[in-house]
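To: structure desk
From: M.T.
Subject: fold request, one chain
Message: Could you run this one when you get a chance? Sequence is below, nothing fancy, just the single chain.
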Amino acid sequence: MYKFASVSPVVLLATASFSLLPIISLLADELPQNIQSSLTLLGNTGTKPTCEPTKFVGEPFFTVETILQNQTRDYTFDSAGVPVNIQVFREELPTPVELVLQQELNDTTAIASISRSFESGEPVFEIELRSNNTDRLLIVNPDGRIIAREIPPSALPNRVQKGIQKNLGALQIDKVLQCKENDSTYFTIGLLNGDFSKWVTVDDSGTFSEQEERVSITAVPAPVRTSILNKAGANEHLRILRKVVSNDVFFEIWILQAQKVEFFWVDSSGTMSLEHP
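Reply: Done. Structure tokens follow.
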């Protein structure tokens, strides 16, 4: 979750940052049914016989090596079968992103992985940089603007750590992204308690501005559920994010359609929009 320009954050899912569970060897027809149907929607022509269960800030995912348009590529799916990360090859990067990457690389820093995800419906590039056996995430928009840079939790200012402990004491800090916009610095923080996780945005004074967590269709208010189902129909490939921004609650919905992910937003009254609030 991080800010994109002046809009609200979204969950970050970078494949190389996932904690890998033991690899489970699955034949293509033994993959979870929703993953199989997702691959079909994406135009898959085959899969390798392995699927890697992964976790990112407590949330489970599946990373599957696919063959699409005669090219092997990793896709990371959430438990609903929505692709949240797509492997990108370096030669596919837009020139502004490549120029940023060149400035980051040196004798001790190499590329661990590159993937494309979405923030508020817009594409972003997530680059894992490896230095001294440690991977750190760099988030760049297609125009070459660095949106976020991962830092160790110990680098958080004390007042930010105290603010989290005071307001969310039961949750432990799992991942920290430092973001800058104009002259302001803020932090997007992944918090974890067992299988429950959420993301918060905190400024450098320790003031909370945004919160986000993934929810199920059964956990949203009835008007919101009705709007989602009216739009999605029988499509079960839905990723629903509940966001709180300045005390306003709305829901961001990712839906897998034929060969692409589409987005829409619903406020707490059930009013739907195709544009980010």
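Reply (cont.): The CA atoms of residues 172 and 192 lie 5 Å apart. Let me know if you need anything else for the meeting.
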